[in-house]
Amino acid sequence: MGIRYETFRQQLGLASDLDSVLQVLHWDQFTYMPPGAGEGRAAQIAALSRLSHERLASDEFLECLEAAKAEADGADPDSDEARLLLWTEREVARRRKVTPAWVGEFTRATSLSVQAWEQAKAKSDFAHFRPHLEEIVRLQQAYSDFFAPYEHVYDPHLDRFEPMMRAAEVRAVFDQVRPKQQELVRAIAERPQPDVSIFSQEFEPARQMEFVAELVRAAGFDMRRGRYDLSAHPFTTLFSLNDVRFTVKIESGNPRQLIFAALHELGHALHAQGVSLSLERTFLGGFGLFALAESQSRTLENLVGRSLPFWQAFYPRLQQFFPSQLGSVDLDRFYRAINQVQPSLIRVQADEATYNLHIMLRFELELALLGGELQVVDLPEAWGERTRSYLGLEPPDDAHGVLQDVHWSWGYFGNFPTYGLGNLVASQLWEKLERDIPDLDQQMAQGKLDGLLAWLRQHIHRHGNKLFTTELLQRITGAGLSAGPYLRYLNGKFGQIYGLNGS
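Request: output the structure for the sequence above.
Response:
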């Protein structure tokens, strides 16, 4: 490429640097920032967000992009250069439709709403959070207006998290999965449940963190290029491809929560560390494809972390950390306990067989909120209705219901469906991975995860956002997004654990 493309890369890099600084501010906000700093931090985030938006939406940057496109005319469509230009063109077009005033207003509103959500959740008081959420919904509806006409008011939001995906497609695949998943859950409910009393004991938090440190090392996370900390809600971010951060949350009496949340975030972090460094400071180097990113966290959390071969290797070590709690508990009992299927109120504590029902609940509420069919004041009641319908449970308070997730305080409408889609993508990729590595179970049973990581690096991680999720699926598996592998995985695994007919 010539000087025009290089100029474009330099200008894009400056915009990327602004976004990286924003991530530093967000990370600090959720880890070490003192509680009294909220107003100042909101102003800082709003100012930087507006600067970043204005830079990429400017006429000057558009001219720079068009010059680079002309110079790259005829380049291999699969090259880094062609893909970066394609992605940047999409992003610039999106940003030019959104006014800088809206960006500043939105980022300030969400920065303040995070603190309001934390306070409301602590007191289980939706009324405290309600005006903030009403403002966010209003701003999100205004955001949709920038992209009219659209098939559904939700589509512009979903496109932020999973480009090229539409609400109708998500609804269709969820409608395919839901009855099968509910049928499985009903069948499991009729079977004897595993003994999970082992998790009713106290597990020292410091020892839990020591065990997590061993998992982090075994999985291949490079501590020279990242770190992990504690936060109220686990998350992963990156300031650069050589500075990847994730957080975990300790619940002293239940090591399952820490271990599987850590594996989940570790899956994201390994994904980020595996992106080709040639994509640094571009749109191709971050988390732009959320269903794909979620597939990587679900792979490590569930397909690896809740598997029997994984614990054949790591359970003896966990027993050494907690001899009085687990020393007399055999592997089979432990494996069944960590894979218990039991409808629960809290999404992040949900088992594999019920998790997507939580996602469908939120997806439908988001559709109704943005479409105007549901008002924020009526949200707790609507939440309760769907919880009873999907999970057969009654939320006792707001903290265990409508206030349990931080995402709406971030303004993340359109994000939740990608969690459910990520489960489908993970299972579809896993079937191909198992064919390519036929002795994978034996490797995991020996505590060897390097073969798994090498496959993920080669086929998925290094590409970053170069290929859209369905495009990558097609290239790796030979098929577009399919619910089949996910349903086969659930029925096969839990059919064996619970001894269901035909399993």
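DSSP finds 22 helices and three strands in the chain.
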